Amino acid sequence: MDSHLLSTASLTRHGLDQQPFLPQWQEAFAYGDASLDMSLNVCLEHLRGESAPVLVKGEQGIGKSALLRRLPARADDLQFCLIEAGPETSMAAVDFAVRQCWQPEARHGDPRQLSLDRYLAALCEDGMHPVLALDDAHLLEPRVLGTLFNLKQHMHNKLGQTLGLILAAERSIEPVLSLLDGKLPIVGTLHTITARPLNREQTAAYLAHRLRVAGMSGPMPLNATAVDAIQRESGGLPRDIHRLAAERLDEAGPPATERQGGIAARLPRVQIPTRLGMPAVIAMVALGLLVALFGLIAGLLGGGDDTEVAANSGSRQVLALPQETTRPAPSTPVAAAPPAKDGHPDETPDAKTASAPPETTMQPAPTAQAPSPPPTPAPF
Prior knowledge:
Blueprint: H1 8-13, H2 34-47, E1 54-57, H3 64-74, E2 79-84, H4 91-101, H5 116-125, E3 130-135, H6 142-157, E4 164-169, H7 174-181, E5 191-194, H8 200-213, H9 224-234, H10 238-251, H11 256-261, H12 263-266, H13 278-301, H14 304-319, H15 351-354
Parallel strand pairs: 1-4, 1-5, 2-3, 3-4
Helix pairs in contact: 2-3, 9-10, 13-14
């Protein structure tokens, strides 16, 4: 996977609709500020002139290509033909790119019969101001680079037309330019703009801009510490900023507001009661046991006075909590308690009777044998 691409999980976690660090140029992601726009305006000023070509120089990944691609949006009076150069790029390839990009009016005759300089002159006569923009120009052969400079000089001196020429290159182009300087006077007029890496504030703004365009609506997922680390490790080169930011976004959790506001939805609904809520829980459990015990005794003894006596007796058993903090387990089996005599409520079984084993039974009523009441719930 491309190191600039976020995982699907990261896109979802950070609320992104698309990849924020694609290597391909996308105009919506273009970032500019006062410093970067100043270099852009200087380029345009020289391209509108009659003779001076422009060189944008800097190391790989510093943003030279982005500057070239931002130019057309800032200059409606200039028409750009962007060519991505390589070691195999020839003047024939440049000629083909120009003819694919622009078409002169029919009054100039068959365009296939026009040489490249005449073709460009016809475009100028039609009211255009053509600009050749070559990215990675340091990869061009010296003879191709020299022919481009010579073409611009010829357009100005022989045909009276202006051809804009801007090159984006790494520093390795300098020896070739030194070689051509002694042969082509126009090379000495070359205006050079040195691309600079982003500073810390620019890096933070650059990252925020790209994430917003990619769909992020919440807070910035990269905090100040993360941005400092990205700036330090990348040196301010956008190419490395993309890689490092993608790595940290893949490792980062959700934004702080999501961690605070959304955590309740992810926690189990049943939680362990706190100390403040424990008395309420105890009271609810005791009340539930009381209701269950009343219902059971009432069902066993039937209606009338006997039911009321049994209910009252049971009520006293449940509410008579022992004074000791702990209740030691009985060391010997507890005998079954005798049945209540003549239904008198004062003869309530003691605590040992209430905790008798399940085998203990009550004396049967005249019509049916009833099981013994359930043991008294232990105190909380």
